[in-house]
Amino acid sequence: MNRLTAEQRRRNRARDDQWQLAENHRRHVTERIVALAGHGQGRLCILGAGNAHDLELPALVEAFGEVHLVDLDGDALERGVARQEKSLPCAADRARIHLHPGVDVTGVWDALAGLSQEATEATLAELVERAARAPCLPLPGPFDVAVSAGLVSQLIDGVVMSVPASSTRFMQLLLSVRSGHLRLLARLTASRGRGLLITDFVSSETAPELATTTDDGVGELAQRLAAAGNFFHGLNPVFLTGLFEQDPVLRPLITRVNDRGHWIWTQRSRRYAVMAIEFERSQSSPGSS
Length: 289
Description:
Number of helices: 11
Shape: globular
CATH architecture: 3-Layer(aba) Sandwich
CATH class: Alpha Beta
Helix content: 25-40%
Number of domains: 1
Largest sheet: 7 strands, mixed
Distance between the termini: 32 Å
Strand content: 15-25%
CATH superfamily: Vaccinia Virus protein VP39
Mean pLDDT: 94
Radius of gyration: 18 Å
CATH topology: Rossmann fold
Strand order of the largest sheet: 3-2-1-4-5-7-6
């Protein structure tokens, strides 16, 4: 197990008792996913499911024919499902939940973890190129609805933990990981299906006003924080929606992008501002992926 994966597992374990604190975040996430369901027979994939603190599994099982939960941390997935298993009406509902542990959604996670402070320019340049590609994952996609649930900020944090900010390739690699993730999300979404990017973009550590901000006030606060440059690397809440239409790979794959609002995610040590962006996948032409 590489050091970045070990750190994610440590964080998941440390947050495992915060189910109740995540209630508001879970309600917002679940409502937005369920709103994209068809008639109960669609297939849903959630990247970054982790402890499933942000997912009401009974509601998702009721809305979708299949629910696929993906995360590097298989133990967290098992704990998350076990926590909600008693709330599932019958064994058949549990059988509709499919776990996909140990999946690297970046294609470069091991390489990132193995970087040293003396990594050469050539090594970093190769990583920048590789990270921008959406990897082929061992998942039974495409899916009617594909969701990235609070994952892109964790992937970006992997870059922050691996490459000095002083490196000339730091921002390039960070933005490449972000682009690759958005492209992956689009590729996992079936023709005419829906994708949903949910991400935190700032915490009360640098924005202490989040301690008293309500859900209704996050959108306005996001504008002010963006103007001040106060947001996680690569996650400017004002510009993030436009990335789907600006990216040359994403542009032909997407027909519509909508802002699906902002809210507060409370954890034990701090509060986070969260946003959701929905897109519609274009109708695939014969022979296209």
